[in-house]
Amino acid sequence: MDADVTDSAGPPERPDHSSGGEPTDGTQDASGAVGEEGPGARAGNAGRFGTWAERPKDGLPGHRRHWIRWTALAGSFLVLAAAGAGWWFYQKLDGNITTDTGAAAELRTYEKERPRPIARDAQNILLIGSDTRSGDNSRYGRDDGGSQRSDTTILLHLAADRGSATAVSLPRDLMAEIPSCHTADNKVTKERFAQFNGAFELGGTACTVRTVEKMTGIRVDHHMVIDFDGFKDMVDAVDGVEICLKKPVDDADAHLKLPAGRQKLDGEEALGYVRARKSIGNGSDTERMERQQKFLGALVNKMQSNGVLLNPTRLYPVLDAATKALTTDPGLNSLRDLYDLVRGMRDVPTDKVQFLTVPRQPYRANPNRDELVQPDADRLFRQLREDEPVTVVPADEAGTAEAQAEPGTDDGPAGRKPEATTGSPAPSPTYSGSNAADDPCDA
């Protein structure tokens, strides 16, 4: 009886899981605690994994756990390596750029005389091709003490909506009002009416910027100077540029020997091609500028059509070549600044990347020099100042428009005849030039 009383008063019996009941993982064990494994579970796990020490803590076999761990470590290493390489490339490209602090200081001195920007978000960048014969460039001609010259000067206008880019060449032989400037040894020059590229030789970049602003009334937001070697490296970085020659060329002065027909030029050949005077065309500086414009258009087309501007792997060598060759104002002296500039241009349609030369004619006092044609030049400068569209057409079409223009009207020889009888507004002026979409063999 005592035994019966004891059984009825004792705790209720629990199932014996060791005899085949369900495991007690996550349920109460004999002590009533939640989440601990009962004796039956221990026995079952020991049976599956041999010994209790071999049981995987995360519920996965050991080899799988090790594989996941090593994959995570390898992934972390690759991320860190990529970040480190990216930072190294950025620092390298950023360090390539030379900043022209002297020009910036000079321009600040004359800030009150400079034009005010009119079109918000539009940008005007002065591109100066240095013709210095010092250093590695001495093989292209006589070095007269390393003096600098502006071989090619282009005013690049980027529309505020980045829907177009207009590059206006300013002839080196154009007669212009050059303001008083500071020379490299801090002497002050007198104002003079002289050949345009004399501004660069007298007072460097700042003097050239102020001469362009005085001539055009356009605020120059940024400037870049690039030399011969830099130009060659950029052409090589895009694996050459295609051009078309009507006749073979053999020019010892330009270090150039090419067959007739369509062909791709490397950097050295491209430099000779854009610099040649006597061996291609009629030997004039006008023809040479048109050739330079078409070549730059072909370069832009090559970069856009081959996806260079959208492919970091292909863009890097171009940026490396460009940054090594560039001397810029402080506003463009970082890779971020240059990338923002490139990013703004990469979506411009190639037929909206336009090239033209400022309207000019032989200078009356010296036919070997040029002078502006008015009012055509002032009209073009106003369009750029106010960010108005500029229409550029091939020379034969521009010639037709010129013939149709009414002599003595405000439209002048560069524009079309206004519709005075109907009272409708005159069509936009049309200028002779080219665009980046032109085929070099169609001329």
What's the helix and strand layout?
Layout: H1 2-9, H2 39-49, H3 62-96, E1 98-99, H4 101-109, E2 123-130, E3 150-158, E4 165-170, E5 175-178, E6 192-195, H5 198-216, E7 222-226, H6 228-237, E8 241-245, E9 249-251, E10 256-258, E11 261-265, H7 267-275, H8 285-305, H9 312-325, E12 326-328, H10 335-345, E13 353-357, E14 360-363, E15 366-372, H11 376-385, E16 391-393, H12 395-404, E17 430-435
Parallel strand pairs: 1-12, 2-7, 4-13, 16-17
Antiparallel strand pairs: 2-3, 3-4, 5-6, 7-12, 8-11, 9-10, 13-17, 14-15
Helix pairs in contact: 3-9, 4-5, 6-7, 6-9, 7-8
Question: Your description of this structure?
Answer:
It is built from twelve helices and 17 strands. The protein has helices at residues 2-9, 39-49, 62-96, 101-109, 198-216, 228-237, 267-275, 285-305, 312-325, 335-345, 376-385, 395-404; strands at residues 98-99, 123-130, 150-158, 165-170, 175-178, 192-195, 222-226, 241-245, 249-251, 256-258, 261-265, 326-328, 353-357, 360-363, 366-372, 391-393, 430-435. The chain has a nine-stranded mixed beta sheet, with helices on both faces. A two-stranded antiparallel ribbon has the order 5-6. Helix 3 runs parallel beside helix 9, helix 6 packs across helix 7 and helix 7 runs antiparallel to helix 8. It is globular and about 95 Å long. It starts with a helix and ends in an 8-residue tail after the last strand. The model is unreliable at 1-15, 17-37, 39-46, 137-147 and 401-426 (pLDDT under 50).
